[in-house]
Design brief:
Layout lengths: L1 H7 L3 E3 L2 E3 L2 E3 L9 H9 L3 E5 L22 H27 L4 E7 L5 H10 L7 E5 L6 H7 L3 E6 L2 H10 L11 E4 L6 E3 L13 H14 L7 E4 L20 E5 L13 H7 L7 E4 L7 E5 L2 H11 L1 E3 L10 E5 L4 E5 L1 H12 L4 E4 L4 E5 L1 H12 L32 H9 L32 H9 L3
Parallel strand pairs: 3-11, 4-5, 5-6, 6-7, 7-8, 8-10, 10-11
Antiparallel strand pairs: 1-2, 9-13, 12-13, 14-18, 15-16, 17-18
Helix pairs in contact: 2-3, 3-4, 6-7
């Protein structure tokens, strides 16, 4: 079967070169780097360096940790931008050297990360001829095409619907059609990390990607993008399951992005304990949630970290500053014990949580209180104070990376510092107590015979396996 399947899996033109229709998912914060991306490119595919807080090293090869010395958020944000540029430049040059001139090298940028445009431009200034394309999602990156044109580089927007791409095309991308390298359709129900579910889509009712991608292709054809590939991202494991997408005029030129499978390779930079955990994931263990400080849905392993966030949100009651309606029971809040008012039932619940050790009440922007332990409250407040502005808008800390540098809302203790936990997990922390992003197909590591007896393939071996349909 493998040879006939390989015949059907035709190469595509991506970022100006014919390559295998296999793309490494970009992810973020060190989960893809120069080593992994270079290996994908060397195999004739597309490697993707994460441009989100990439690692950098000193002259002796020692990791430079993301430690901030600025006293204010704005000062720490400037340090973050410099860290990000330096790390991405280093990783892209490494990927280019490893590739040996084969395949393509892309950089993945999250549009909603803090300082995204500045980091992107700073990196491109120092990597001319090294990076061939930019993939970008997590928001609506209208200016992506304009920035790409400044550096004569291909751009690959990530969308989750035809409507999103149509809006981008009409507002901006139609002026830069020649550099549109592909459109990445990311399944908002199956992809790992942040997901592009709209308000009108039910997170509990996944939709078949085929009609959604066919709808995207139909619009692309209407505006003359017949030959521009679509990259299917989210849910790809065995390409034999996608055979009906190949040579299909409703789909057109197609490539497939793999985000989860490359994590379990020898070149993958994630720690061994993370790789080991991937083998233990069961079907249903990946949890689509809305705890992220970005406000987006995201898919993560349902571990102790997610469990604590869920329980934190469940220990929540509304309050009023004055006694009104059913809110008649006073609750002493803060060091001065100022009375806030709850319903009798909610006051009873709050008292029960306090009896269990969740003694600290923290206000949310929605006129509710959550109840946490003293240790957890101290951690939440410290993380909010230590904010370094890693997002363009952060609901956890109320940071905004422009204008007056605040969202104008109260900091939300129901969320968490995303940079802190992702830096920790990628550099060796306990995977059960950190945010562990994953695609929903990660349970297949434990079922796929390719990974039996603890086998960890090289990227080259994985690419060959994918080409065989498996």
């Amino acid at each position: 079967m493998s040879e006939s399947f390989r015949d059907k899996l035709k190469p595509v033109i991506l970022s100006g070169k014919e390559v295998l229709p296999i793309v490494e998912g970009g992810k973020g914060i060190g989960a893809t780097n120069g080593q992994s991306a270079g290996a994908f490119a060397a195999a004739g595919a597309v490697g993707t360096v994460s441009g989100v807080n990439a690692d950098s090293h000193d002259e002796q090869g020692n990791l430079i940790p993301y430690i901030y010395h600025g006293k204010t958020r704005r000062e720490r944000h400037e340090e973050l931008v410099e860290f990000g540029i330096r790390g991405a430049v280093e990783q892209l040059h490494q990927a280019y050297d490893i590739s040996g001139g084969k395949g393509r090298i892309h950089m993945n940028v999250l549009w909603e990360m803090g300082g995204a445009e500045r980091i992107l431009q700073g990196v491109l200034e120092r990597t001319k001829g090294v990076v061939h394309g930019i993939t970008c999602g997590a928001g609506m990156p209208y200016r992506l095409s304009e920035i790409a044109a400044q550096y004569n580089i291909y751009y690959h927007p990530i969308v989750s619907s035809m409507r999103a791409f149509r809006a981008l095309w009409k507002r901006a991308y139609g002026n830069y059609r020649d550099l549109l390298g592909s459109v990445v359709y990311e399944d908002p129900w199956l992809a790992g990390g942040h997901n592009g579910l709209s308000n009108g889509e039910d997170p509990n009712k996944p939709q078949d990607p085929y009609p959604r991608v066919a709808e995207l292709r139909k619009f692309m054809n209407e505006v003359g993008l017949h030959d521009t590939p679509i990259i299917m991202a989210g849910g790809a494991w065995h390409l034999s399951e996608w055979e009906h997408w190949l040579d299909n005029p409703e789909i057109g030129p197609i490539a497939f992005q793999f985000g989860t499978r490359p994590l379990l390779t020898k070149e993958s930079p994630i720690p061994d304990r993370w790789k080991a955990k991937l083998r233990e994931i069961k079907k249903g263990d990946v949890f689509l949630n809305r705890f992220s400080p970005t406000g987006f849905y995201s898919s993560a392993v349902n571990n102790a970290f997610i469990k604590e966030l869920r329980e934190r949100n469940e220990r929540q009651v509304p309050f009023s500053m004055e006694a009104e309606g059913y809110m008649t029971e006073p609750f002493a809040f803060g060091p001065r014990g100022r009375p806030h008012y709850m319903t009798p039932d909610d006051k009873e619940r709050a008292d029960s949580w306090i009896d269990l050790g969740y003694t600290e009440a923290l206000k949310t922007p929605d006129n509710t209180m959550i109840f946490v332990s003293k240790e957890r409250a101290d951690e939440i407040i410290k993380d909010q104070v230590d904010c370094m502005g890693c997002l363009s808008h952060c609901r956890f800390s109320n940071w905004k990376d422009h204008d007056d540098y605040t969202t104008g809302k109260k900091a939300d203790p129901r969320s968490f510092c995303i940079q802190k936990t992702l830096q920790d997990i990628v550099h060796g922390a306990d995977v059960n107590h950190e945010l562990m992003f994953s695609g929903h197909n990660a349970y297949k590591f434990g079922q796929d015979p390719f990974y039996e007896n603890g086998y960890v393939p090289t990227v080259g071996e994985l690419v060959e396996r994918i080409r065989d349909g498996q």
